[in-house]
From TrEMBL:
Enzyme nomenclature, EC number: 1.14.11.1
Name of the molecule in the record: Gamma-butyrobetaine dioxygenase
Cited InterPro entries: AlphaKG_dependent_hydroxylases, GBBH-like_N, GBBH-like_N_sf, TauD-like_sf, TauD/TfdA-like
Region (Disordered): 1-20
A single BP term in Gene Ontology: carnitine biosynthetic process
Family stated for the protein in its record: Belongs to the gamma-BBH/TMLD family.
Enzyme class, spelled out: oxidoreductase
Residue stretches making up the Gamma-butyrobetaine hydroxylase-like N-terminal domain: 35-105
Keywords: Dioxygenase, Iron, Metal-binding, Oxidoreductase
SUPFAM superfamilies reported for this sequence: Clavaminate synthase-like (SSF51197)
Gene Ontology molecular function: any one: metal ion binding
Length: 402
């Protein structure tokens, strides 16, 4: 048993690392050396994450402890660390809690481990982006194949599955093997083919500039599956653009333009005879670390701006700059899809489009559905067995601490 060795001031302390297992109590936090790294944990955070029987619903692991009731002065009255049983603390409110070393490692919230837990993102090269490809049988029938496909979508923002049966609604069946279809105001399974009565430009044979679908929702669908049943027409090559790579280039070249697109709300609308969708948001939405989280780009669905007079020209300057990058061919993949190909795009990141085609030269028919990226990441966690929370303290089936 290793007991708390000494008291220091609050917060991380620079300097040499103490021996493995050294526990140091500060005023508001403690540090513990695990795997040669000094790890810091606030008392309020540890108290909040107690797995003591009184603080949890045993069967579901949900929290019973009401977090706002934790006193600001919460601190250990006793604390010790043992490599086998972990960190044991008696808190000033009388509760005894234990935190295993494995649990502390997994939830260490210092910068390096926190960033290491994000899924890897590889932006596309400036030229000749090559998309990862997988066979339908591997993705549908094997865990390893499905995991590799989900990893690729998460990292690269797009992947192609080949050999998908050219059957009506096969795209829906594929979606249901990896998650759930996201329903929108229009068809659950959307047909894209030449249709003079269609309600958007996708139903014409004209070029479709790279875009994201349905920015006319406050939360646009974040995954899109596009399944080619047949593609015999001349032309109509698919064009995908890594929007996050384009935005990274814009941010490097003109941070002011990037900021403008993070700030200025743009209204978008898509409607049919029976349905309407409309939402107004900035084209770029960042996460709390300043990374791009959601990118909306649909020139064809943008509606008149309604912003202060003195912001209008700076928005158009920023939009022009971004449009030039997207149109440049950098960060773009251009390829002819065959019947049986299914393209997956993380559609908060990757734009999709097509070159014009000649409808008289052959049939071109694809079906697409929407999904949510969250569900694909969840599927990945389940396949890896990572979805169940790791209890901080080991218990037997009766709930007794082992
Ligand atoms: Fe589209």
């Amino acid at each position: 048993m290793i007991e708390a060795t000494h008291l220091t001031g609050a917060g991380p302390v620079a300097g040499s690392v103490e021996p493995e297992g050294t526990l140091t109590l500060g005023e508001r936090s403690l540090s513990l050396v695990l795997d040669g790294r000094e790890r810091h944990f606030h008392y309020v955070w540890l108290r909040d994450n107690s797995w003591a029987a009184a603080d949890r619903v045993f069967l579901s692991s949900e929290r019973k402890l009401f977090t706002p009731a934790i006193a600001t002065t919460v601190a250990p009255t006793e604390a010790e660390f043992d490599p086998d049983s972990g960190l044991s603390v008696r808190w000033t409110d009388g509760q005894q809690a234990r935190y295993s070393a494995e649990w502390l490692r997994r939830h260490d919230y210092s910068q390096a481990p926190r960033h290491g837990r994000r899924h890897a993102v590889t932006l596309w090269a400036e030229t000749d982006a090559e998309l990862p490809r997988f066979s339908h049988a591997d993705v549908v029938d094997t865990t390893d194949g499905q995991l590799a496909y989900l990893d690729a979508v998460a990292e690269h923002g797009a992947a192609i599955v080949t050999g998908v049966p050219s059957a009506d609604h096969e795209v829906e069946r594929f979606a249901e093997t990896i998650g759930h279809v996201r329903e929108v105001a229009f068809e659950r399974v959307h047909n894209v083919r030449h249709d003079p009565t269609g309600y958007n430009v996708a139903h014409t044979p004209e070029e479709l500039k790279p875009h994201t679908d349905l920015p006319s929702y406050n939360w646009p669908p974040s995954i899109q599956l596009l399944h080619f049943l047949t593609n015999e027409a001349t032309g109509g090559e698919s064009t995908l653009v890594d929007g996050w790579a384009a935005l990274a280039e814009l941010r490097r070249q003109a941070p002011g333009h990037f900021d403008t697109l993070c700030r200025v709300p743009v209204p978008y609308q898509l409607f049919s005879e029976e349905e309407d969708t409309w939402a107004e948001n900035p084209m770029v939405q960042l996460d709390t670390d300043g990374n791009v989280k959601v990118f909306r780009f649909s020139n064809q669905l943008a509606q008149p701006l309604s912003i202060p007079f003195d912001q209008v020209e700076s928005f158009y300057d920023a939009y022009r700059h971004l449009g030039t990058i997207i149109d440049s061919g950098r960060h773009r993949a251009t390829f002819k899809s065959d019947g049986g190909d299914l393209i997956t795009v993380h559609s908060h990141r990757v734009l999709h489009g097509r070159l014009p085609y000649d409808p008289a030269s052959g049939a071109r028919h694809l079906q697409d559905v929407y999904m949510e990226f969250d569900d694909l990441l969840a599927r990945r966690r389940v396949l890896r067995g990572e979805h169940k929370p790791l209890a901080a303290e080991r218990r037997d089936v009766t709930g007794e601490v082992a």
